[in-house]
Write a structure and sequence with these properties.
single chain; alpha/beta; six-stranded mixed sheet
Length: 193
């Protein structure tokens, strides 16, 4: 069930841009695409933008440049995309590792952490061969380690934390829309009315 969790930030959040963070398999791209259509914003996927800019798939970048080379490219794309207006952005799972990315996300929009258990993430990603960090002997263990390392960073940057569970993309998107509507300040009557 989704829940509002904004420990350090005001409940009135700028929603011109909506940024989705979370581990691989959390649903950022699927939810982001549907949410963008519903709220009439342009949708961008940071990983897809990196692939478009380089002309190669993410695993190839990891093979040639390593994770550090990929992260440098990711930081440039995040800088570009967070400077735009009226967008829904699905970030890569490791985007929050960069302090500069976290600052840009917090500064330029409403950040939603799509939180899932490592077990749910493994079920969603186990057949996906386009996940370089899961090319390990035990992908579930890797997901548990990534969750342990990154959960605090996702929570720190988030205006909303939404537990994804097993609901459909449509149901999850509707729940996010309701939570976003709760962040919009109620208009108060004019003192001269």
């Amino acid at each position: 069930m989704p829940k509002l969790d904004s420990p350090q930030r005001s409940p009135v959040i700028d929603q011109e841009n909506i940024f989705l963070v979370g581990l691989m398999g959390a649903g950022k791209t699927s939810v982001g695409r549907m949410l963008a259509k519903r709220v009439h914003k342009d949708f961008f996927d940071a990983d897809a933008e990196i692939e478009r800019a380089t002309g190669v798939k993410i695993p190839v970048i990891f093979d040639i440049e390593g994770e550090s080379g990929f992260r440098a490219r990711e930081e440039k794309i995040i800088e570009k995309l967070t400077a735009m207006h009226g967008v829904v952005l699905a970030t890569g799972g490791g985007a929050v590792l960069s302090p500069a990315n976290r600052a840009r996300l917090k500064q330029h929009g409403c950040v939603i952490y799509l939180r899932a258990t490592p077990e749910d993430l493994w079920r969603r990603t186990r057949r996906d061969r386009n996940r370089p960090l899961l090319r390990t002997a035990n992908p579930l263990t890797t997901l548990r380690e990534l969750h342990a390392q990154r959960d605090r960073l996702y929570s720190e940057v988030a205006d909303l934390i939404v537990d994804t569970g097993t609901q459909s993309v449509g149901t999850l998107t509707t729940q996010i829309q309701k939570l976003l509507a709760e962040l919009v300040p109620a208009t108060s009557p004019s003192p001269h009315a």
